[in-house]
Design brief:
With 365 residues, the chain is α/β, with parallel strands linked by helices. It is built from 13 helices and eleven strands.
């Protein structure tokens, strides 16, 4: 593996990039959404909601509340699927809390009336109306995207890029010994998505349009320590440092005067406690932030082409992702799998951007 990482697509650094974000918010989804809200060169076209960490109604409520906090209440929030394609929905309150964002709470926002379109119709109309312009960031089960591909098989050509947080290849799963959470929630959807890109590759889809897959192999390298919140409060200009320690009583709430720092601290504390409960230490794996940085073009990474498939029949390996990097299946690559990244630089970027947003929100309040 080369020692120096490069941003894989310099075009992401142009003045404006347009994103469609699909999430199941989720503590690390919330962190990713706040981060993207802090970037001046990113235009978030819509945030669509998929059931996963919590039910889709709560996902939508979380997204509306957080976007309002980040002064982005003009961004549409839409609901698509309400359950996985073929199996019952399983949520994870033990990981993300009963409302999905740990101990964090926000008031119900005064949000614009919902759009008539559902999330899937919105994606299709947006892609058709803006061919080659939109990047899709998927930090949830792939249910909505699979349904969109069913309705519009030309989406791989119409979209600029797709970034997926999901899967585990040469790495232990976080839901079963071999399966990652997003894929395990709806493995049939993930299988359909990768099959659609195999078909597209066979028709000559350019490799630059293949999904970039951020799997546990590289997202778990983004291991946040509680000291991150102290750095964030300092960067935000808070008078008092935000100190979160493993010795604190569980459920201790932030007293920060800055609403964004307080929200993120309360959410992340729950995540630290969850990881400790599963013998991983008082840390938090912030998978979705890394995927967001890939989509935004702000974080360094390297990829390898692979043909990805998902196991949906075996009870033992249900939801397991498999990547053929050597062409043993005789099929074209249907994904670009991230194989290297730079967590230290990524956390520096996150502190700087979120700190600037927190300062700005305080000044405008």
């Amino acid at each position: 593996m080369p020692g120096k990482l490069e941003i894989a697509d310099e075009a992401y650094q142009r003045p404006s990039s347009r994103l469609l974000i699909d999430c199941d918010t989720g503590i690390d989804d919330a962190l990713a959404l706040a981060y993207l809200s802090s970037l001046d060169h990113i235009r978030i076209e819509a945030v669509t909601c998929t059931p996963g960490n919590i039910d889709v109604g709560q996902v939508a409520a979380n997204n509306r509340a957080l976007l309002t906090l980040c002064a982005k209440s003009d961004i549409p929030v839409l609901i698509g699927a309400r359950e996985p394609l073929e199996i019952p929905l399983v949520t994870t309150p033990e990981t993300h809390g009963p409302q999905g964002v740990g101990y964090a709470t926000l008031p119900d926002p005064m949000y614009p009336e919902p759009m008539a379109l559902d999330a899937i119709d919105y994606w299709i109309e947006a892609a058709r109306g803006n061919p080659g312009e939109l990047t899709v960031l998927l930090t949830a089960p792939l249910t909505n995207f699979a349904l969109a591909l069913r309705r519009e098989p030309r989406l791989p050509w119409l979209l600029r890029r797709v970034v997926i947080m999901g899967g585990a290849f040469y790495y232990q799963g976080n839901t079963t010994p071999t399966a990652e959470w997003n894929t395990h929630v709806d493995p049939h959807a993930a299988k359909e998505v990768f099959a659609a890109y195999t078909a597209a590759a066979e028709e000559g889809l350019d490799s630059s349009k293949l999904p970039i897959v951020c799997s546990l192999d590289t997202t778990e390298r983004f291991e946040m320590q509680p000291d991150f919140l102290k750095k964030l409060s300092s960067e935000s200009g808070c008078a008092e440092p935000e100190i979160v320690q493993a010795s604190d009583p569980e459920g201790t709430l932030s007293k920060s005067s800055n609403p964004l720092v307080r929200y993120l601290s309360d959410a992340l504390r729950f995540y630290f406690e969850f990881h400790r409960q599963y013998d991983q230490g008082y840390i938090a794996h912030v998978h979705d932030f890394f995927a967001a940085g890939v989509a935004a073009g702000t974080l360094d990474y390297e990829t390898r082409p692979a043909t990805v498939d998902v196991e949906t029949d075996s009870p033992l390996l249900f939801g397991t992702t498999v990547a053929d990097f050597r062409g043993l299946w005789g099929k074209p690559a249907n994904a670009q799998v991230v194989v290297a990244n730079n967590p230290e630089a990524g956390f520096d970027e996150l502190v700087q951007r979120l700190g600037a947003l927190a300062r700005k929100l305080n000044e405008n309040s």
